[in-house]
Write a structure and sequence with these properties.
The structure holds two protein chains of two kinds.
Chain A lengths: L8 E7 L3 E8 L5 E7 L7 H14 L6 E8 L1 H7 L6 E6 L5 H4 L24 E4 L2 E2 L5 E3 L5 H11 L4 E5 L8 H13 L5 E3 H4 L5 H31 L6 E4 L5 E3 H6 L7 H16 L5 E6 L4 E7 L2 E2 L1 E2 L2 E3 L2 E3 L3 E2 L1 E3 L6 E5 L5 E7 L18 H8 L16 H14 L7 H26 L9 E5 L3 H12 L3 E4 L6 H8 L2 E7 L3 E2 L3 H25 L7 E11 L6 E5 L1 H5 L3 H16 L8 E12 L19 E7 L2 E9 L8 E3 L2 E5 L2 E5 L3 E5 L5 E5 L5
Parallel strand pairs in A: 1-4, 4-11, 5-6, 5-9, 9-10, 13-23, 23-24, 31-33
Antiparallel strand pairs in A: 1-2, 2-3, 7-8, 11-12, 13-14, 14-15, 14-20, 16-19, 17-18, 21-22, 24-36, 25-29, 26-29, 27-28, 27-29, 30-31, 32-35, 33-34, 35-36
Helix pairs in contact in A: 1-7, 2-7, 4-5, 9-14, 10-11, 10-12, 11-12, 12-13
Chain B lengths: L4 H25 L3 H4 L4 E6 L5 E3 L17 H4 L10 E4 L14 E10 L2 E11 L28 E5 L2 E2 L1 H9 L4 H29 L1 H23 L5 E9 L9 E10 L2 E5 L25 H10 L13 E4 L17 H19 L12 E9 L6 E10 L26 H7 L2 E8 L15 E7 L4 E6 L10 E2 L9 E4 L7 E3 L4 E4 L4 E5 L14 H10 L4 H8 L3 E2 L2 E2 L1 H9 L10 E2 L2 H9 L2 H11 L4 H15 L11 H5 L2 H16 L11
Parallel strand pairs in B: 10-11
Antiparallel strand pairs in B: 1-2, 1-5, 3-4, 3-6, 4-5, 6-7, 8-9, 9-10, 12-13, 12-16, 14-15, 15-21, 16-20, 17-24, 18-19, 18-21, 22-23
The chains are: A alpha+beta, B alpha+beta.
Chain lengths: 694, 677
């Protein structure tokens, strides 16, 4: 490494099950360096130690040039799904021991006699009751008797518990009793962490709030030991930069917050991909996009509108509900590994079983004997047996052909090329399923899919994008330059973010009281949030706040989201807020109900600490690419000869007319006849139907 | 297959996505709890014969899982359909039973393409209140349809896109919740518009011929799949019956009896032996036809056996019915019908029994058999006005099946709605929830244990509160055990439990409470499967540790002796071997109450009694039946309030009283019951 000027840079790291992805961004030039290192599932931060020196070396920077590391991991979500977390005890109000058995009393399916319910994170014998009981209005109707809490602590200690969560009814409004019990438990349980539900997430709903605080306790030991190891290894490489962890809300948090509130990071994986897609699309002036991350086992979809991602408070971690605000990412239909099969009635089916990465598709030659979507891509000619994963993996076309012959036989597809015809038929089914799900996802928000551009990433996203876009009635899609390291890129493009909630019931017609209540609530949270941002590090600018109220007409059983403009957050005027609500209700339901009182049920605040944005570097202008080769592709019933371009040959301004194939190291893009691609200044390839402006 | 193996699957997914989008529109634009929370609505697209071929894919979107809606009942009633029309009804008696009580409005919009109808968009939802005797319009003690709300026979609600304003005026004037109703009415119309738009999109993409062809092909495909699953049922004739505790007007139980004939994957259901119509609103308006209320368990059996079957009316093609007039599953004008669900819930258990007889290894034992909604009416302490809130909907447990215990404290066998959070309840009503937990020892004992039910204790904090309770059952006759399994615990409702003034209650409609009163509801568990003394003692110890059984229950029900140190293997083995084996019923254990009842009212006698009753004019049937039962069991206790055996006394004398009473009513020509048929 020669002597040169300091090059400030940031590193994003995403540890997945198979690969650990690294992206290094140089702040001045915007140049990106990407690197993939095999993950070590038995020791998840080892790949970070292995990969970082190589990345830094490749980028030609020094370890002390690194000003920020942002890291994402799927460790926690997997720990919850596989029930590998800590042994947690739960303390509840008397009479509420059934909280996890009853849950919300519903199940994921109805038409199945053999159905089972989820395994609770805390078995009922580790749920302890306390007499402490507070009502909605704050009245304490019962307190723990002398020695009662000590006795609970004794029983907890005897059972070898690693963490305790306390969840008392109505603590979301009146946390005092919960704190009191927790404090006494701490006194008796030297060193065992005790979590208070209202401290983690003070929202109405005893089951959901308990679950959030239990999950937090459940994964905390794993997160702490992981972060210890990670920090140590990063320091060993000579990097002294602050470390941030990606969060489920599309932001990041400092390492100390991640230790205390690991629950905030559980669903960060798919969220980072959406953040990257959103930012990269925004550079290309696309603010209304549907992100499609199609990998081996699943296809994740999210809607970005007006440059803002969509959020939900109704997500899941495996089979457990999670009511924290997270980026709204939903899984639709098929991934590359989804199995193609024929039912006894001769009808062609896709999934839901997946061959995953292991044994994987038939063409991987790893023992998979059921044909998959990837085998169909191969037979049709979208992907080439010698060029998969940049040529690192040879695919077996003959085996794929044999497997799809059998599908053709069972589905009564005959004639010449029947295996290829079966592959095309299978893809048409997969595409129809994905398109239908995508349309539903957009319809759920009351929008029309044709107003959106699709952003395709993940190994199979670019391959399937054009088929999907055409079927779903969209007119364009974008393929970013290196889509498989997208989550790592998203990590360094994200701001620091945290969400706060209160569930205080406020009647807006009681004007003065309402104004004071809102002032107090938002004043309180804002102070807390500002203090938090301050301790999250020096890189962050002034905190920004966005407030939302969940409101209803009195007596209604559901809420509408009312985003609060800054002036109403700082000077809440009940009349103006009521008017905002009327307007939103009118837009949704066509009328306003002037006879009903309006109520605020939930108050939300998000704080954002912006980090200086990374400017993504441009690509060279190179307008007239030459195809590297041609390939036979089965399209619309017959083979055609499509030119094959290499992505690295495409510079700014390059245009390609379909039919065509664009190969890059981590994916292949198929462009249909009648569609054309154009590469923009940062290397995004925009593909649109001829005659449509994308 | 005309469409080919791929296109059929594509159309299957796409038509179901049309229904999904209709459901999303309805749910998004509705304002009522019934739609938004409980999912008490349905949407679909029907072919020109009124058969649904498109149904939402996500069974959790709508709480309604039966799709055999006779849409032709509405379409046939109106002949001059034009583009932009919407027709609708809430009246069973004039719509061939499309609507099954007045709370449900069914709407249909013809979908036109090139000037001809290519399909019908359909939807319904449960409206909060449609008038009638009680708030919410549903009560088991309504005595005729006119007490249940405004009847709207099939009419045009929208004509060429223009809303029938006269209808709206009448509709809103006849409800206690006109605003919520209007919101839901508009949501239904919006869902139908969505359906039409999405069908147009589908036709634009695939052509009208494909769209028309797929309607029949998809149903034929589902029929083939359904029959493939049903062929697992051995050919034969199966009979089974079960009881509803009483009809809420008298204390006499009534019986649902099915004779099912299975032949090569077809199922014929004969309802002939079922008891006559009842005076309250537990009658089901099947209008003499095959209706989805009869086939729910069969449909679930099919969907369990083939998880990829497209949900459409083709699933019903293997089914047929014999459904003569007069019995409780064939309501006749002007019978009250609002609580018909409680009756079909019992019918489900009967069908469950039939499936268990046919395929013992592939069928689960029945679920708890009751599903209770608690509504609290109280006076606002500030303004004094009446406030009415749904307090909670409560569930039993689910049935065990070979190799697995039943699901504890949840039951989706009829509805799959979420419960109310306790913090919501306490925030909006003047009550304290003292207890909301699993009901220990309520699961039917078995080698595989039935799921335990829920329990809840509510304490009223204001004088003059009224609790309205819907769906109570299984107080008198508990859920029956299967293949050695013992009956589950019965439903119980107790006032002021654990206090000196504690009082066990029976089935009731409403209960007045004062501040400090508590009501404890204990839901029945699901049924057990196999001999409980064969249950792995370690599994019983787990249940004990987790509180699903008590220590006393472990010994009594499972023969497992537990001490403070854990399992006493020796004592357990000894206890288990000394049990009297006669207690174990080979197939079904119906429990002592039902056994006592049937010692007098055996199957043959009841069949004969019903046969004779059906010869009487409808107007006399109920009174004569009531009189006969009064003669036999003059002191019949209310359900759960006393033992049937004690009330009956000597069974032989009771049988003599019965023969006497029947002779008095029907004349001496009565054949001896034993030799009837």
């Amino acid at each position: 490494m020669g002597k040169r000027q300091s090059q400030r840079c940031r590193i994003g790291i995403d540890v997945g099950g198979t690969f650990t992805d690294f992206v290094l961004a140089e702040m001045e030039s915007g140049a990106l360096t990407r690197f993939k290192e095999a993950s070590v599932p038995s020791d998840p931060s080892r790949s970070v130690e292995n990969g970082l020196p190589v990345l830094v070396e490749r980028a030609g920077v020094r370890p002390d040039d690194v000003e920020l590391i942002v890291h994402g991991t799927t460790l926690l979500v997997n720990a919850i799904i596989q029930r590998r977390g800590a042994k947690v005890a739960l303390v509840v109000s008397k009479g509420n021991r059934g909280i996890l058995e009853i849950a919300r009393a519903n199940l994921a399916h109805t038409q199945d006699f053999t159905l089972r319910k989820e395994e609770p994170l805390v078995p009922r014998d580790l749920i302890f009751e306390t007499s402490a009981r507070t009502l909605t209005d704050g009245t304490v109707i019962d307190r723990p008797a002398e020695g009662e809490t000590a006795a609970i602590a004794g029983r907890i200690r005897d059972t070898g518990i690693e963490a305790v969560s306390v969840q008392l009814l109505n603590s979301y409004l009146h946390p005092e009793m919960e704190s009191e019990v927790a404090e006494e438990l701490r006194d008796h349980l030297d060193g065992i962490p005790v979590t208070e539900s209202a401290y983690i997430w003070p929202e109405l709903g005893e089951f959901e709030r308990a679950l959030i605080s239990i999950m937090n306790a459940y994964v905390q030991p794993i997160m702490e030991s992981y972060l210890d190891g990670l920090t140590q290894r990063i320091r060993k490489v000579g990097i002294d930069a602050p470390i941030y962890i990606t969060a489920s809300n599309g932001g990041t948090v400092g390492i100390e917050t991640a230790r205390q509130r690991p629950i905030d990071t559980v669903l960060s994986g798919p969220a980072s991909g959406v953040v990257a897609a959103m930012r990269v699309a925004a550079v290309s002036k696309h603010t209304d996009i549907i992100t499609v991350d199609m990998g081996g086992t699943s296809c994740d979809v999210s809607v970005v509108q007006g440059g803002e991602p969509s959020f939900t408070t109704q997500s899941h971690v495996g089979d457990l509900p999670l009511n924290l605000p997270v980026l709204d990412v939903s899984a639709i239909g098929a991934g590359g590994g989804s199995i193609v099969w024929v039912d006894p009635q001769g009808v062609l089916k896709i999934g839901p079983q997946s061959a995953g990465a292991d044994p994987g598709p038939v063409c991987y030659g790893r023992g998979g004997n059921q044909p998959t979507i990837t085998d169909c891509y191969l037979l049709i000619g979208y992907i080439h047996p010698d060029h998969f994963l940049g040529g690192r993996m040879q695919l077996d076309s003959v085996a794929a052909q044999t497997a799809l012959e059998e599908v053709a036989e069972r589905a009564a597809i005959d004639g010449e090329n029947r295996a290829v015809k079966a592959a095309a038929a299978a893809l048409s089914v997969a595409t129809a399923i994905m398109a239908a799900e995508l349309q539903k996802g957009v319809a759920r928000r009351g929008e029309d899919p044709s107003d959106f551009t699709l952003m395709a990433f993940g190994g199979a996203g670019p391959t399937h994008a054009n088929l999907l876009v055409e079927e779903a009635g969209l007119t364009s899609f974008i393929v970013p330059p290196a889509s498989s390291t997208f989550c790592a890129l998203g990590a360094i493009l994200a701001d620091v973010k945290r969400d706060y909630v209160r569930s205080q019931h406020i009647l807006l017609d009681e004007c003065d009281a309402a104004e004071n209540a809102l002032l107090e609530i938002f004043g309180g949270i804002q102070e807390e949030a500002a203090a938090w941002i301050k301790q999250e590090g020096d890189l962050l600018g002034q905190p920004q706040f966005t407030a939302t109220l969940e409101m209803r007409y009195a007596g209604q059983a559901f809420d509408l989201q009312v985003p609060l403009p800054d002036e109403l957050r700082t000077h809440p005027q009940p009349a103006a807020i009521t008017e905002l609500f009327h307007r939103i209700h009118e837009r949704q339901y066509g009328f306003r109900d002037l006879d009903s009182a309006t109520e605020v049920m939930t108050e939300r605040l998000r704080v954002t600490g912006r980090i200086t944005p990374v400017t993504l570097s441009g690509v060279e202008k190179r307008a007239a690419p030459e195809p590297a080769t041609t390939r036979r592709v089965f399209n619309d019933g017959s083979f055609l000869l499509a030119p094959v371009f290499l992505r690295r040959d495409l510079g700014e301004g390059a245009t390609i007319a379909g039919p065509a194939i664009v190969e890059q190291e981590d994916s292949t893009t198929w462009i249909l006849p009648g569609w054309s691609a154009r590469v923009d200044q940062i290397g995004n390839m925009l593909v649109a139907a001829n005659g449509k402006v994308g | 297959m005309k469409l080919g193996s791929a296109l059929l699957e594509i159309m299957s997914k796409k038509v179901s996505a049309v229904a999904d989008e209709m459901a999303l529109t309805l749910k998004r634009t509705s304002r009522s709890t019934f739609v938004k929370e409980a999912g008490d609505f349905g949407v679909g697209v029907a072919d020109l014969n009124g058969r649904i071929f498109a149904w939402p894919s996500d069974s959790t979107v709508s709480g309604v899982s039966s799709i055999f809606y006779p849409i032709e009942g509405l379409v046939d009633a109106i002949s001059d359909l034009e583009p932009g029309d919407v027709i609708g009804t809430n009246d069973a008696y004039t719509s061939q039973g499309l609507a099954t009580h007045l709370s449900d409005y069914h709407l249909v919009r013809p979908i036109f393409h090139d000037d001809r109808i290519v399909a019908y968009g359909w939807c319904f939802c449960h409206f909060c209140d449609v008038g009638g005797r009680v708030p919410g319009s549903v009560s088991p003690t309504n005595l005729e349809i006119f007490q249940e709300g405004l009847r709207v026979p099939p009419i045009k609600l929208v004509r060429r896109g223009a809303l029938n304003e006269d209808f709206i005026t009448i509709f809103t004037a006849n409800s206690r919740t006109p605003d919520l109703n209007m919101g839901d009415f508009k949501a239904l119309l919006a869902a139908l518009r969505t359906g039409e738009q999405k069908v147009e999109r589908l036709i634009a993409r695939h052509g009208v011929e494909t769209f028309m062809a797929c309607q029949e092909e998809l149903q034929a495909y589902s029929e083939a799949k359904a029959r493939d699953v049903l062929r697992a049922l051995p050919d034969g004739v199966y009979e089974f019956w079960d009881y509803v505790d009483d009809d809420m007007v008298t204390r006499i139980p009534f019986r649902i009896r099915l004779k099912v004939t299975i032949r090569d994957g077809t199922v014929h259901i004969d309802l002939t032996g079922t008891d006559p119509q009842v005076p309250g609103s537990l009658n089901y308006p099947s209008m003499g036809q095959l209706r989805s209320g009869f086939t729910r368990r069969l449909v679930t059996f099919i969907c369990t056996g083939d998880k990829t079957i497209p949900f459409n009316a083709g699933i019903f093609r293997p089914f047929s019915v014999t459904n003569p007039p007069g019995h409780v599953l064939h309501a006749e004008y002007p019978d009250a019908i609002s609580s018909r669900v409680d009756t079909t819930r019992r019918l489900n258990d009967v069908m469950n029994g039939i499936l268990l007889k046919a395929v013992p290894d592939r069928m689960a034992a029945p679920a708890g058999g009751a599903s209770v909604t608690l509504v609290l009416s109280e006076h606002d302490p500030r303004g004094g006005q009446q406030i009415v809130n749904v307090l909670q909907s409560m569930r039993g447990g689910m049935g065990a099946f070979r190799g697995n215990d039943g699901v504890d404290a949840r039951d989706v066998s009829y509805v799959n709605m979420k419960n109310q959070r306790l913090e919501t309840i306490e925030g909006q009503s003047g009550v304290i929830i003292r207890d909301y937990d699993v009901h220990a020892d309520s699961g039917g004992p078995g080698q595989w244990r039935g799921g335990v039910g829920q329990m809840m204790t509510v304490e009223a904090r204001r004088d003059g509160s009224t609790l309205i309770i819907q769906g109570m059952d299984r107080i008198r006759f508990p859920g029956w055990g299967v293949f050695g399994g013992r009956p589950a615990a019965p439903f119980r409702i107790v006032l002021n439990k654990g206090r000196p003034e504690e009082k066990e209650l029976s089935r009731l409609d409403r209960l007045d409470l004062n501040a400090g009163d508590t009501v404890t509801i204990m839901m029945p568990g699901g049924s057990g499967y196999g001999d409980p003394f064969e249950r792995d003692p370690e599994a019983v110890m787990d249940d004990l540790r987790l509180g699903f059984v008590t220590r006393a229950g472990a010994k009594r029900d499972f023969g497992v002796v537990a001490t403070n140190k854990g399992l006493n293997r020796q004592a357990t083995e000894k206890f288990r071997t000394t049990r009297v084996r006669q207690n174990v019923r080979a197939e079904f254990d119906f429990g002592s109450e039902r056994e006592a009842w049937e010692r007098v009212f055996d199957d043959a006698t009841l069949l004969e009694l019903n046969r004779q009753l059906m010869t009487l004019p409808r107007s006399q049937r109920f009174d004569k039946r009531h009189w006969i039962f009064e003669q036999v069991v003059p002191d019949m206790p209310a359900a759960g309030m006393g033992r049937v055996a004690a009330a009956i006394g000597d069974p032989d004398e009771a049988r003599a009283r019965l023969a006497d009473a029947m002779a008095k009513v029907f004349g001496n020509s009565t054949e001896s019951p034993a030799h009837s048929r």
